[in-house]
Structures are given as C-alpha cells and as structure tokens.
C-alpha cells in the first residue's frame, strides 16, 4: 500500500538514512513526524481565530555503551538531522550507563508493524473555506444562543527507522468539531470527532448543544452527595483517559504509583467492564506501531472487571520479563502510554440508561479534572454544559454544576449498565491518540459541592 | 532572517491585509532527568519557524511554517490572507486594534552564567549527588532531579513598522522524593513541585538552590508523610506557603482577569470568568490588604519580557488594588472593551506555530509585612500547607479545590503535627476576602509556572507570580467524599 501524509515514507527515509550509521554510536533510532493542522475557532457566535500550521519534528535517539540520549530538530534537511544526531551522541557520552536499557527494536524480534492508515483524502485537503462553512452551519443552528467552539481538520504522518532495520510508516487524518451553546440561562455541549470529516456533522452537534442550553431548570434544590448518575460519553471518556494516565503504563506500575501495582489479577470494576488499548478499533485514530517501531498490540488492561496487565515498551517489558506491547511514548521519563483507550460498549440505549435512575443526575461532560491520589485513582473536577436532574427515570431539568471527588475504580465498580453507542474523542492537547467510550450508568457517584451556575 | 520576515510582511499587505505581523522564533532547549544514580532522560532540542498574522476585512488569519525560505514565506503570507478572508464570512463586526507606538529594539533577559555552557557531566553529577542521597533514605522508592533549560530568540516585525528582537533565557530545576507503602504514594519536592523552581535566569539559579543540602530533609518528609494522620475536614484558619499562594493567585486571580475569558472568547475550552467589565472599580475581590499586579517588567520572572508577541511594550498594571478589582489583562483587540486606549501587553504565543493569546505575564500578590512565623504566631488553631500538589477550578474560576504536598497543625502560634493529603476548597471572592495577613518583602519571591495551558490548539505558556505566605480565615479543608 502506498502511504501518503504530510511527509511520505521516502521523505522520512531520506532524512534519517544518513545518520543511521553515525560513527561512535552503537545504535541510532529516528522518528520523523509531520503534521498540517487547520483550526477555526469561534466564540460569541463569530470566528475569532483561524490558524494553519505545518510542522515537522525529527527525534534522534543515540546509544553508546548503554548510554542513551535524544536530540530533536524541526528541520528536515541533512545538516540539521546530522547535527541532532551528533548532539545526541555527545550527550549520551556525557551520560551514565543504563544497565536496564534493552537496546533499540530489532525487527527480527518485534516483527513488522502494519499501518492502521486511518486516512481520508478529503479531510487532508480541507481548507479554510470548508472550515468557515462548517462554522456558519453551527452558527445557523444555534441562533438565539451564543455559540463557541472549534472546527479542526488535520493530517499527520509518523515514521520510525533505526540502525537495526526498523522501517515503519503510518498516517492519519482527523476532524474535530465542538460546540458550546449559551442561552444566557444555561449552557449545552456537543462534540464529534472522526478520521473523516464526512462523518462529523456540525449541525447535529450544534442542535444537541442548543437543546441542552435551552432546557428548563429543575425544580427544588440540589444538594451534594452520592447519587446514581448517567455519565454521557464525553464525561466517561475523560475518566477513562485519566485512569490510563494514572496507571495503565508499566513504568508507573513498577514504580508503585499505579493501581496495577497492588491490584493485578484482582476485580477492580464491574464484570461488564473491559478497557483496552486498541488502535484498530474502528473508531480509534492512531498508529500501528509505537515510537520505538514496535507493532502496537491490543491490550486488555481491565478485562471483564479484572485488572490484567499494563502496556509496555521495550525497557519495561524487559524488566517484567515479557515482550513489548508496542506502547513506547517517546518519553523515557514517563514510560509507556496507552494512547488509544477503548471502553467496550454494552447493550443499553441512552433512554434505558436514564430510565434506570429513580433519583439522580445526567452529566454531559467534566471540566478541569485533576488527580488527588494516583494509586487510589481519586480525581476531582467540575461538571459543566449540561447537568440534569433525573427523577423516576426521566430527565427533570437542568441543575447547577457539581464538584466531584471520585475514585475512577470505585466508579467502574459501581457501573450498572453500559451504553451501546461508543463515541470517539480527540485529546485536548496534541494530536496523538484517541479515546473511545459509550455512556454508562453508575449506582453511586460522589458530588462534593455545588456552584452558582 | 530580516529579509524573510520583510518579504512575508510585504506579501501579506499587498494581498489585502490591513495589518500584518510576522514572528520568527528560534528555540534551544535541554531537559535532564536524573533518578538515583541513573540518567532517566537527556533530551536536547532545537526549533525554528515563523508565523504570519494578518487582519483582512476585519478578521484574523494566521499561518505558520518551519521552512525558512523566500518562497515559503510568500506562500505562508498568502495562506494567512486566504484564511482571514474565510474568517471574515462569519464575524459580527470588524476587529479594530488600539494603537501602540512603533518600537525598534533589541532586548536580552538578564543572566549571570550560561547554563548551556555548563558541562553535562557537571550537571549530572550535581543532581545525582542529591538523588542518590534521597534514595539512601529508607522508605524512599525514587529520588529524582530535573533540569530544564530554554533559550528563545524572538524576531517580531509589523506592518506598522515595529522591529523587535528579544532573547529570553530561562532555567528550572528541582528534586523530589517519592516514598511508597503497600497502597500509598507520597511525594515531597524542593524548591517546588512539578520540576522545581523556574526563573528567567542562568545556571546561578541552580547553584543558589543548594539542592544537596535539602535532599535529606525532602526524603525524610516524604517517608514521614506515609504514616502521618490525614488532614482533617474542618473549617479553620489556613496559612499557605509562597508556593501554594502562587497557584492560588494563578488560578483564582490570573485566569479570571484575562480579558479574552471575560469577553467569552475562551468559553468552549478553558471557560469564562465570574467577573465582568461592569465589576471594574466596584467588585470587592479581596480584603483591603490584597493588592495584585500584572507586571511584565519584573526582572527574572517567567513572564518577564520587554515586548509581548504583538509588539506591545511590557507594563505594570494593577489588577486588584486595596481589594477592589481595578484592571484586567488585555490585548490590542480587546483593550477597548474595557475603555482602555492601549493594550497592557499580555499577548504571547507558544513558539512560532501558534496564534498569540492573552497570557499572564507576572501576576503577583504584593507583599504585606512580617515573616511566616509572624503569620503563624497569630493562629491559635489552624493548618499550614506547603507546596502545590493538585488544582481544579470551575469554568468561571469560582469554585476551587487545591491540594498541597504537606501540612502541619498550627497550635498556639506554633507548628505541630505533620498532616498528609492536605486539601482546601473555596469560592474565589469569599476566599480572598478572608485574607487577613500577607508576609513581607523578605519572604516574597517571583516563582514560575512552566505549564499553564490555554487555547485551541492547546498552548503551554510559562508565567510568573511574585508571592509570599498568606493567611486566610474560616477556610474549609479536606475532601468531602
């Protein structure tokens, strides 16, 4: 298959090839990343920022006598790449030997990755006029509200080549659109993300946002406490994302910070819960290999409620006496990372999830979530843009936002039902990876306080 | 470089831009992480590119590229104009910029010793001395030291005639000890959490930290936290150290007084603000001793510069004076909305590839008087918290919960038992109005936050905060669960 992208494989080979036999280095690994990102931002129902950026990064990792260092440049020409390689070699020589360094990937041992190539030509070629048209559609669908959000199209390519013969390439596109509608009396949210712009419907997300923003308010006061809740896909995706960040990587498990450090092979969630890292899920957007050039495996980190195993890179896999699952993040400080997390769907419709609540709430999404206790997977954050009372199985009006303080594992253990319609989400920062999650119903979710809006 | 920037500017204006600026940024960075005796990560990086920002038909367009040649400069300028024309199809009224004098200048941030010139061997040895010492303390799983160096040369030209070159050098360093028991992790750090203390300074900053002399204490405190009692949930008098006051100022004063947030421009992502323009001169934001400034002219802060990224001269302005909200951080696009005829110079972008946004420069709580001991002496029963660990605040910057690494009881004016997992919650104006003491200039330090996120695409900015310890009455501590 001929792969295209902001940089094609030959561009990457041409940049990396000359430094793979760097004199004095035992091994050289080069990652070449290219991206073109167009993002149109609107607020107060008008376009406020509109940007296009063309970027390249070349990461050169050099090893000598088990000493390792990395140097990065954003220039693709031979002089800059060679200078980066030489800088990395000098730094490696100044460093100390790392007896746990297993070496760079050897294709004879790790195998040849297959690209995922979630690529859509129309998305890659989308320009400012298409983006402005999408925004105008959103503004048309949110008349009467003040609307804010983004419409973004991007194209990305990644290549990894090394002195042992690794030579792999992949590319993907992505379209993301979001809409916050503010009626003056309430706010609502809609968002959609896919590798193909044709699968993203700006009008639909705008109508969702407006419907939520203009919903009537619930009667009576709401008090903090533990409640039965429906977490819509955006809210659930954020919790799953944080769980991955806090504990799916083998380095955090080995160092004792992850819940996996003490709970491997134990029940940590309801038996209906399976959470995997799975770049080949049809909704995922990502690469078929990691930044060491190792094929990315599907890893069930939590399978049918049982904590099974972390994701690994070459170094942590060697330490655990296993094989790398292909999740090197490119940061030796952070270690391996699960960047394509998927919460497996269940069988319930959204209406069925809501119908199972006698007295509780529906949460559209969370805001400013942060970690309070990593091993305990305890998070805090706020609800926003659509928190609704649910009474006797029906939506009963919008309520003010809550602050929550909740262990993600306790939340997973309290899941009563999982929605049948998973949704894909792009990361807030950077362009790497995706999260796929459906809505869930949880028997007990802890709201610690309320706010005045 | 100058020719290339001028070329892009010419093409932008001849293609229809009523205003254009071009910013090229050369960045050099070095990041070192040492764990015990080992080098965990050693990364160097360079980056070079330029961005063209244009106003066409009253709407913004921006395009950026890492390829620096004349052909690409012209293509990017034309692309920026085309983007602006697309933007103009969905605006309610044309953008107008408040005036700014033309500046032709060159500026360097102060530095005594170039940190890039210090040998890697010496750097590794310095940190390993501290990290190995921490890992020798029983109960410590990981002793880690980090060093972050950044040098940026920013070239700015505008169609109004400004030509500015600034070179900014920043250094950050710190150590942390992680102690682990069966199901618990505790971390202590010095001089601050999340990679230490940052400033616009050279290697002298690292030397002044004396990391080795603090390693043993930091490690022992991390271990002691494992067996310390939990910080209670109670309403009490709270004394915060300067590091946590930095975070408190950042989240509950810095962000809510960014004028783009106030005007709703950040609504969908980072949120808006609980304050509005009608609150200026009226809102009792804090008690009468609370005075907070936005000041890019302070020497040594992460938000110290001579000109912002739209060529506006750095300024010192009051945000809160004697407890009253009197100012907001602005840009040339937004300043007129609060009746100002000049931006107060807070537009900054991460690198060459991003559109500038209103970002904090150095937002500082001005010092009061006395020492930390003086603040504690007037507390019969309270809690002293040190070193930020977690933060969360709502989308209007009102309801917050912040956590620290460590706390101690205060009994009869003296520190008592150590407490673990300290957290406190509050409502922004209620909290600042409960402030009844701020320590004096001898405790005041400009600290740095190197990881402030905002905007779409997400940008990470380095911002500064001058703070000293402060005391707050009737604060809710603990986490309701």
Structural summary, described in words:
The complex is a heterodimer of chains A (about 450) and B (about 475). The longest helix of chain A is centred in the N-terminal third of the chain and has 17 residues, at about 80-95. In chain A, strand 9 (about 300-305) and strand 10 form a beta hairpin. Helix content of chain A is about 25%, strand content about 35%. Chain A has helices at about 10-15, 80-95, 105-110, 120-125, 130-140, 200-215, 235-245, 250-255, 260-265, 315-320, 350-355, 410-415; strands at about 25-45, 45-65, 65-75, 145-160, 165-180, 185-195, 225-230, 275, 300-305, 305, 340-345, 360-375, 380-390, 395-400, 400-405, 415-420, 425, 435, 440-450. With about 450 residues, chain A is of the alpha+beta class. The N and C termini of chain A lie far apart (about 55 Å). In chain B, a hairpin with a 4-residue loop joins strand 6 and strand 7. In chain B, helix 1 packs parallel to helix 2 (about 70-85) and helix 3 (about 120-135) runs parallel beside helix 5. The longest helix of chain B is centred in the N-terminal third of the chain and has 18 residues, at about 70-85. Chain B is globular and about 70 Å long. The mean pLDDT of chain B is about 95. At the A-B interface, strand 1, strand 2, strand 3, helix 2 and helix 5 of A face strand 2, strand 3, helix 2, helix 3 and strand 16 of B.
What is the makeup of the main sheet of chain A?
6 strands, antiparallel
Could you tell me the mean pLDDT of chain A?
96
Helix content of chain A: 10-25%
How would you classify the helix and strand content of chain B by structural class?
alpha+beta
Largest interface, Cβ cutoff 8 Å: A-B, 92 and 83 residues
> Low-confidence spans of chain B: pLDDT under 50, at least 5 residues?
none
Major sheet: arrangement of strands of chain A: 3-2-1-4-5-6
């Amino acid at each position: 298959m001929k792969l295209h992208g902001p940089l094609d494989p030959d561009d990457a080979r041409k940049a990396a090839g000359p430094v793979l036999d760097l004199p004095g280095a035992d091994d050289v690994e080069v990652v070449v990343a290219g991206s073109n990102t167009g993002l149109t931002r609107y607020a107060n129902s008008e376009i406020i920022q509109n940007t296009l950026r063309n970027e390249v990064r070349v990461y050169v990792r050099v090893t000598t006598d088990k000493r390792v260092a990395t140097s990065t440049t954003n220039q693709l020409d031979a002089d800059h790449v060679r200078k980066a390689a030489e800088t990395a070699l000098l730094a490696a020589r100044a460093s100390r030997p790392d007896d746990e360094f297993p070496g760079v990937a050897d294709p004879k041992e790790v195998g040849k990755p297959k690209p995922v190539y979630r690529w859509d030509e129309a998305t890659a070629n989308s320009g400012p006029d298409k983006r402005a048209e999408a925004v105008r559609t959103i503004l048309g669908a949110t008349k009467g509200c003040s609307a804010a959000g983004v419409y973004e199209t991007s194209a990305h390519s990644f290549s990894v080549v090394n002195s042992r013969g690794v030579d792999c390439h992949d590319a993907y596109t992505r379209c993301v659109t979001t809409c916050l509608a503010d009626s003056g009396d309430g706010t609502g949210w809609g968002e959609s993300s896919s590798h193909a712009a044709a699968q993203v419907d700006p009008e639909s997300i705008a109508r969702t946002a407006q419907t939520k923003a203009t919903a009537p308010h619930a009667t009576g006061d709401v008090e903090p406490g533990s409640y039965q809740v429906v977490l819509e896909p955006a809210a659930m995706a954020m919790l799953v994302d944080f769980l991955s960040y806090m504990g799916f990587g083998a380095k955090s498990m080995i160092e004792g910070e992850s819940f996996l450090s003490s709970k491997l092979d134990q029940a940590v969630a309801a038996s209906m819960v399976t959470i995997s890292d799975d770049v080949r899920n049809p909704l995922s957007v990502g690469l078929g290999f990691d930044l060491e050039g190792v094929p990315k495996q599907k890893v069930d980190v939590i399978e049918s409620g049982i904590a099974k195993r972390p994701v690994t890179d070459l170094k942590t896999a060697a330490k655990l006496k296993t094989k790398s699952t292909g999740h090197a993040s490119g940061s030796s400080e952070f270690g391996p990372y699960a960047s394509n997390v998927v919460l497996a769907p269940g069988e319930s419709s959204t209406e069925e999830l809501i119908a199972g609540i006698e007295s509780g709430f529906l949460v559209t999404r969370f805001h400013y979530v942060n970690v309070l206790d990593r091993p305990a997977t305890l998070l805090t954050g706020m609800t926003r843009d659509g928190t609704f009372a649910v009474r006797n199985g029906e939506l009963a009006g919008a309520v003010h936002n809550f602050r929550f303080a909740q262990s993600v594992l306790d939340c997973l253990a309290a899941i009563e039902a999982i929605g049948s319609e998973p949704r894909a989400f792009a990361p807030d920062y950077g362009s790497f990876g995706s999260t796929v999650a459906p809505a869930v119903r949880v028997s007990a979710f802890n709201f610690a306080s309320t706010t005045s809006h | 470089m100058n020719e290339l920037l001028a070329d892009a500017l010419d093409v932008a204006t001849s293609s229809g831009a009523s205003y254009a600026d071009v910013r090229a940024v050369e960045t050099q960075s070095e990041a070192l992480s040492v764990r015990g005796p080992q080098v965990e990560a050693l990364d160097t990086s360079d980056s070079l590119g330029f961005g063209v920002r244009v106003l066409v038909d009253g709407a913004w367009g921006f395009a950026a590229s890492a390829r620096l040649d004349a052909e690409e400069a012209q293509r990017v300028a034309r692309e920026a104009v085309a983007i602006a024309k697309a933007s103009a199809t969905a605006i309610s009224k044309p953008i107008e910029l408040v005036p700014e004098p033309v500046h032709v200048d060159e500026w360097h941030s102060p530095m005594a010793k170039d940190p890039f010139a210090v040998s890697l061997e010496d750097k590794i040895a310095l940190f390993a001395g501290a990290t190995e010492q921490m890992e020798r303390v029983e109960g410590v799983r990981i002793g880690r030291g980090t060093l972050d160096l950044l040098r940026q040369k920013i070239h700015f030209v505008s169609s109004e005639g400004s030509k500015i070159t600034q070179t900014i050098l920043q250094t950050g360093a710190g150590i942390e000890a992680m102690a682990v028991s069966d199901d618990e992790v505790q971390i202590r750090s010095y001089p601050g959490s999340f990679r230490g203390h940052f400033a616009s300074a050279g290697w002298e900053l690292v030397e002044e930290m004396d990391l080795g002399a603090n390693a043993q204490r930091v490690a022992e405190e991390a271990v002691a936290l494992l067996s310390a009692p939990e910080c209670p949930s109670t309403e009490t008098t709270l004394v915060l150290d300067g590091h946590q006051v930095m975070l408190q100022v950042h989240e509950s004063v810095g962000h809510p007084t960014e004028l783009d947030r106030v005007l709703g421009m950040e609504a969908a992502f980072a949120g808006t603000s609980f304050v509005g323009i009608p609150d200026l001169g009226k809102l009792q934001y804090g008690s009468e001793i609370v005075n907070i400034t936005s000041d890019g002219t302070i020497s040594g802060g992460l938000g110290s510069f001579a000109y912002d990224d739209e060529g506006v001269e750095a300024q010192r302005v009051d945000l809160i004076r004697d407890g009253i909200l009197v100012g907001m951080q602005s840009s040339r696009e937004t300043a007129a909305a609060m009746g100002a005829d000049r931006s107060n110079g807070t537009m900054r972008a991460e690198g060459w590839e991003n559109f500038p946004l209103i970002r904090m420069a150095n937002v500082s709580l001005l010092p009061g008087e006395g020492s930390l001991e003086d603040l504690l002496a007037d507390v019969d029963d309270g809690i002293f918290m040190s070193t930020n660990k977690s933060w969360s605040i709502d989308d209007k910057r009102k309801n917050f919960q912040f956590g620290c690494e460590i706390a101690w009881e205060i009994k009869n004016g003296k520190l008592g038992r150590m407490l673990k997992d300290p957290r406190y919650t509050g409502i922004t104006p209620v909290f600042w109005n409960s402030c009844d003491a701020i320590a004096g200039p001898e405790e005041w330090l400009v600290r740095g936050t190197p990881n402030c996120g905002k905007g779409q695409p997400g940008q990470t900015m380095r911002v500064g905060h001058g703070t000293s310890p402060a005391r707050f009455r009737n604060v809710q501590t603990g986490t309701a669960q």
